[in-house]
Amino acid sequence: MIGEVPDTQIGQEFASRRLTHEAGIHRPLQAGICGTKRRGAESIVVSGGYKDDEDFGHVIVYTGHGGQDSSGNQVSDQSLDDAGNAALITSYLEGLPVRVVRGAHSGSQWAPAQGYRYDGLFRVTRYGSKLGIDGFLIWQFRLESYEGTPLPEPVQQETLADLEEAAASGNELVPAGNESPERVSTSVQRIVRSSAVKRQVKAWHDNCCQICAVQIEVPGGSYSEGAHMQALGRPHNGPDITGNVLCLCSNCHVMLDAGAIVINDDLSVIRGGVEVGVLRTHPRHVLDMECVRKHRERWRQD
Amino acid sequence: MIGEVPDTQIGQEFASRRLTHEAGIHRPLQAGICGTKRRGAESIVVSGGYKDDEDFGHVIVYTGHGGQDSSGNQVSDQSLDDAGNAALITSYLEGLPVRVVRGAHSGSQWAPAQGYRYDGLFRVTRYGSKLGIDGFLIWQFRLESYEGTPLPEPVQQETLADLEEAAASGNELVPAGNESPERVSTSVQRIVRSSAVKRQVKAWHDNCCQICAVQIEVPGGSYSEGAHMQALGRPHNGPDITGNVLCLCSNCHVMLDAGAIVINDDLSVIRGGVEVGVLRTHPRHVLDMECVRKHRERWRQD
Question: Is B129 close to A257, i.e. CB distance below 8 A?
Fold first, then answer.
């Protein structure tokens, strides 16, 4: 349920939330975030319900869930314990894709003129809290579309006229809705997306590094990376199975990938030529010793 | 000199190495790799000079430099001390783009029919060593084009006929030249590209983490990440200056980005609510305290 939904196209329109529900694109009828802390967020609806939301097309600043009264005013602080907010943090930590549905509302050139529209997969690249417009704490998530995802047709062409006017007047202040922030993936971002295989390995080890035992704790959970020993694809062609994946902290992952760490057949760990300990194991996590060996041979220097 | 060259288009053709030199696309007249260990690789030429090279279009398995005799046979082991090979490792560690020039040669459907062709920017996503076809140790680098980079027109259409024949015969073995390995960036890869600003900060600190003092050592160098405290782009709009960047190990970077680590105005470091030490400094690295404060406030939970 994470990722693309069969038989649905980017740009497909839906007249109502009932229809996005029936298509499996966004299943809840009211909540803006579909997901759980354990599995991550499946989908969100961007519909102008939060005053602090900002939509730049390829980048969306999305306000978390909670703290509003029935008329849409923020009346209390938002919390990371909220299931929807916790789901988006899991999506961030695991690098999982989130389906984005935009709903019609005024003030955004990227919203559809009516109803709802599925606009493709985004990743959560950042989050943080701030005091919102109404003076209460809100959590915000930056989502970026995957490269290659087409932008919808903008609906408010008059903003372009505003832009030209501003340029002509020598005023460089660009209306917020027209700015196109740089995609983080081209400059900054850590993108270590978890597959189902990696998530299984990480779950067995409870995000504890199999090499150095570090468990990176972050607000809302803990973080680790699934590392293939024998890399997928050419030229190594490793298998995408749990026996080929280790649960590592980011530092040990860097060192494994660069050959600073290799593992012997007796599971002793060699770092920088020195034995530094033994790989931590889990009874259900059976390593494929062929993968251990092939990783080690990739770094032979004889 | 890293990245795109002004006035040159992807797909542009050059009749000779002299002309790629004059255009600044690939400056050496003979060497296949242009670059240094300190700055990374500017460009490579893929021209069939190494038997172990493989070209899949968006993915290239490129053999490092050295160990060949004048007739192109591998007669000794390759070394990471070779300047070109060391340059490609720096490109990998720093996430820097490498210009790829393909030269005409038989056996690759992605090579131009004659002369040389600039085919855009690639990143080094992996490397390792193996025994080459001639029985000596070689180093190989996996390069992947950036998403959105167009593929050149393949020249050997007969391989498609081979494919159809294989499919018709029920033989699923696909000729190597036609395989299109998954881009690692969509599933696995750490991409923390260093800008000039980040590289300066990392150089000042010699890749030692300013929070935990770890220096990640890998064959061919050491590794750290430049971390913006106040993130670039919406909604935080942090400045891209050295005062806004910390030199961190990957683990501390994850924690800084997720708010598990914040820094006080006296540079004491708070991790998980507990003071764990003081930020390491360098006399030339003057922090912008506004950025320190804004990062901290992004994680307020009052």
Answer: no
